[in-house]
Structure formats: C-alpha cells, structure tokens
Design brief:
- This protein is of the alpha/beta class and 327 residues long.
- It has one domain: P-loop containing nucleotide triphosphate hydrolases (Rossmann fold, 3-Layer(aba) Sandwich).
- It is 46% helix and 13% strand.
- Strands 3-4-2-5-1-6-7-8 form an eight-stranded mixed beta sheet, with helices on both faces.
- Helix 10 links the parallel strand 7 and strand 8.
- The radius of gyration is 20 Å and the shape is globular.
- It binds adenosine-5'-triphosphate (ATP) and magnesium ion.
- Adenosine-5'-triphosphate binds next to helix 1.
C-alpha cells in the first residue's frame, strides 16, 4: 500500500479537487483506493458525500466516524485512537471523513513533536495517530491512500506528511505558488530529517511511519489563472517552475533551461474545466463522469471525454511512480 499526500502551502490551487478526481480515476481502473480528509476545512468530505450523509456524520455531539472522532480519546487524554468506519463510495473507493473539529488537534501535535526527543511514548502515539488510523482503517487489498491536507505548514500537516510515502505538489503558475515552493521544499526536508532521527527513539511495539514523503512531481493547475492576465505573465511563471522545483523542493541545481512541457517532474498541466466543475459539484460526481442528464450536453460531452483522458494520463503517471498497477 502506498500513501500519497497532495500538498502545497498556497491555498486554493486545486488540491482537494485533484484528490477527489484522482481517487475516482484510480478506483475506475481497478485500484482499491481510500481518500482521507486531513484538512479541517473538510472540503473533500463535502465533495464525496451528500448533505444527508454529512448530517449523519457530523451530529451535535460525538463524531465516531470521522478523523476527529478517531483521535478524540487522545485529545481528551483518555486513551488511544479508535477506528472510524470508512465511508464506502463504490466497491473499491472509500473515504475516511474529515471534520472541522480536527483543528483542535493542532496544539496537541505541536506539543508532541519536541517531546518525542525525550522518548515519551504518549508523544509518539500523538505524532503517529494519522498513520495508525490509516493502517487500522484500510482493508486488505487497499493499494492506494490519497491524503488531502490544508494549505499551511502547521503541525497537522507535519503529522499527515510523516504518514506519507510520497508527495505530489499541485501548483498554479503564479508568484504565490513559486514563493510557496521556496517555503515548502526546505520544510519537507526538515520534517523528514528530524522524523528519521526520532523514529530511533520510538517505542519498539508502536507502528511508526518512515516519513519518506518523497516528492514525485508537480501538477500545474492552470484554472488558477485569471483570464484577464496577459499570456506573457503566465508564461513567465510557467518557465520558472522547473528550476524552482529543483532548487526549492529537491535541493538540486536548477539544471538546464527545461520547460514544463519536457520536465520529467511535471506530472500534468490541468486546464480550467469551466462549467464542468460546478456541474460536477451539483451532480455529486467527478467532472469526467458527467452525463447529459447532469446537463453535460453539446460541446460539454467532448469536454467530459477530454477531461477523462487528462486525469487518466495523470493517474497513470502517478501509478508508475508509486509502483501501482492500473487496469
Ligand atoms: N481544473 C479546474 N477547473 C476548474 N475549476 C477548478 C479546477 N480545479 C479546482 N477548481 C476550483 O477551484 C477552487 C479551489 O479548488 P480546491 O478547493 O480544490 O483548492 P484547494 O487547493 O484544495 O484549496 P484549499 O487550499 O482551500 O484547500 C474550487 O472552487 C474548485 O472548484
Ligand atoms: Mg482543499
């Protein structure tokens, strides 16, 4: 089983939409997939589930079947994680539901990180909660876990990232995204280095993730571009992506003047799918499964087909990096 986080500290680049569509695409190609919503905004959960199911998941009191419910005993200091029920979306697609309450875990996670240096078992239980929650919840046969996180470099994301084997970086071709990479790259390396040291201090009987968080590449999300912006400005940021990715994320020299179009770290450039996205949200399904009954008529049908191809090629690229077979 491989766990892949989709991460960028720049908000609104399209991380959640990407995780949602990729999870469906992998499942459609026979990959037993679980998506886990570790962003306290819980947008991924809202994309997967209709309002009735959300109301059932998030009643006024306890939330046993969300990530928050699962870690609540740790938060209250009365025990270890419990196992949330995985929300079945299809036979081979499941969701571990998010929760706004998850934000209450931030302080506990901040406090646990330095305490791991003192070999404190309780601190390791807190730091590994997401990893253990994933391992406990997935059934045999789950090949892939996709993790959605919020747009920051906080303690929740650090814990989510140490539970990740690999990382995909969705980014927009603009100043903010490239600046974001400059913070994100060194932070990922620091988290990896410190966690590798800390794993030697962990209790031997606890399931502890390796914290590999290997960056496998980036996805350029072109929907973030404003139509009014001159093409030249957009092209300028596009052209800087390969070198910035190498320097900031991989800690390598910028390399020859590569373009995104021939950069092996470029996993895909995704277009703005315009009205398909709101249509998909209304229909509670991915854009590439929209039918005429959902409103995808006329030119939309061709757009749906090409959207399917875009996500299929991206999923195949990620599968190759992750060593996962797609049908
Ligand atoms: N390829 C696309 N085409 C059209 N619209 C898109 C595309 N990708 C994302 N969007 C839209 O952009 C907005 C932001 O997307 P999304 O919520 O996925 O971003 P995010 O990076 O997860 O945000 P946050 O940082 O808040 O978690 C949403 O309204 C979404 O519908
Ligand atoms: Mg999001």
């Amino acid at each position: 089983m491989k766990t892949i986080a989709f991460f960028n500290n720049k908000g609104g680049v399209g991380k959640t939409s990407l995780v949602y569509h990729l999870a469906w695409m992998f499942a459609d190609h026979g990959v037993n997939t679980i998506a886990i919503d570790l962003d306290p905004q819980a947008n991924l959960t809202a994309m997967f589930l209709d309002e009735e199911r959300l109301e059932e998941l998030w009643p006024d009191d306890e939330h046993p079947d969300t990530v928050y419910g699962a870690i609540r005993p740790i938060l209250r200091g009365i025990g270890d994680i419990t196992q949330p029920e995985v929300q079945r979306i299809t036979d081979n697609l499941g969701l571990i539901a998010g929760d706004l309450g998850l934000s209450r875990f931030e302080d506990k996670l901040s406090d646990a990180w330095p305490r791991c240096h003192n070999r404190e078992e309780s601190a390791f239980r807190v730091m590994t909660a997401f990893h253990r929650l994933i391992v406990d919840s997935v059934q045999d046969g789950t090949a892939l876990v996709l993790i959605d996180v919020g747009p920051n470099l906080g303690a929740i994301n650090r814990a989510a990232l140490i539970a990740s084997d690999q990382v995909v970086l969705p980014l927009a071709p603009d100043l903010f995204s490239l600046q974001g990479l400059k913070n994100l790259g060194p932070t990922l390396r620091e988290w990896r280095e410190i966690w590798t040291e800390l794993t030697h201090k962990a209790p031997p009987d606890l399931s502890v993730p390796k914290g590999t968080m290997l960056p496998i590449g980036y996805v350029v999300m072109q929907h973030g571009m404003r139509d009014s912006r001159p093409v030249k400005a957009y092209q300028r940021w596009m052209d800087r992506i390969p070198a910035t990715y190498r320097e900031a994320v991989l800690d390598e020299p910028p390399g020859a003047a590569l373009k995104v179009s021939n950069d092996p770290y470029s996993l895909a450039s995704l277009r703005h799918y315009r009205s398909l996205m709101p249509m998909a949200m209304d229909a509670n399904k991915p854009m590439f499964f929209l039918k005429s009954a959902d409103g995808a008529i006329g030119a939309h049908q061709e757009a749906v087909r090409s959207c399917y191809q875009d996500f299929k090629i991206l999923a195949q690229g990620i599968a190759r990096h992750a060593g996962i077979a797609m049908l």
